[in-house]
Amino acid sequence: MYRLYFENSNGVLRILGDYKTIEECLAHMRQFLEEHNFTSYYTRTIRCPDGKIMLDVGSWSEFFYIEVLENEDNEN
Description:
The chain is of the alpha+beta class. It has one helix at residues 22-35, and strands at residues 2-7, 13-19, 44-47, 53-56, 63-68. The protein is globular, with a radius of gyration of 12 Å.
């Protein structure tokens, strides 16, 4: 299970949802960008020290994060 977050330009994290796969997270991220009229020309992934994956979509101040949730269904 994976949790998708959005960090706004004020540094406030907001949970966007929990998903079974990373692909579902990425699809929801793209939908979020489309709903907010933002065109991303690339997605750069960065592994954070706390284990989250930071997704840089080309905004200088707003980012997405994916967190791996530990549970019995997840092998990680």
